[in-house]
Amino acid sequence: MKEQGKAFNLTVASPDKVYFDGKVISVIAPGKLGYLEILTHHAALITSLQKGNVIITLENFSKMKMEVTGGILEVSGDVSLLADEVLQAEWRSES
């Protein structure tokens, strides 16, 4: 289990809307070469994304899932995900 307190800032946006902006402990995204997980202190990275699900884990371990059509992911301390389009987003609580 991931430790609490290891959070970083994540922003998920499309050209017309910000879908999420807050503290998380993990984000899993569909990179062009497969899914990748970003945790706190991840090395700097810029990569393109393909169509697939983005899974965000908050500090309280609740999760948000978004389906994106592609985009760009940038890690530089904070993490920014600019999606071409977000098709759907849903929350679920992990208790």
From TrEMBL:
Keywords: ATP synthesis, CF(1), Hydrolase, Ion transport, Membrane, Transport. It is found in: Endomembrane system. Residues 8-85 form the ATP synthase F1 complex delta/epsilon subunit N-terminal domain. It is an enzyme of class 3 (hydrolase). It is a peripheral membrane protein. GO terms for molecular function: hydrolase activity; proton-transporting ATP synthase activity, rotational mechanism. One of its GO terms (cellular component) is endomembrane system. It comes from the Bacteria. Its main location: membrane. Pfam families: ATP-synt_DE_N. Its EC number is 3.6.3.14. Belongs to the ATPase epsilon chain family. Produces ATP from ADP in the presence of a proton gradient across the membrane. This is ATP synthase epsilon chain.
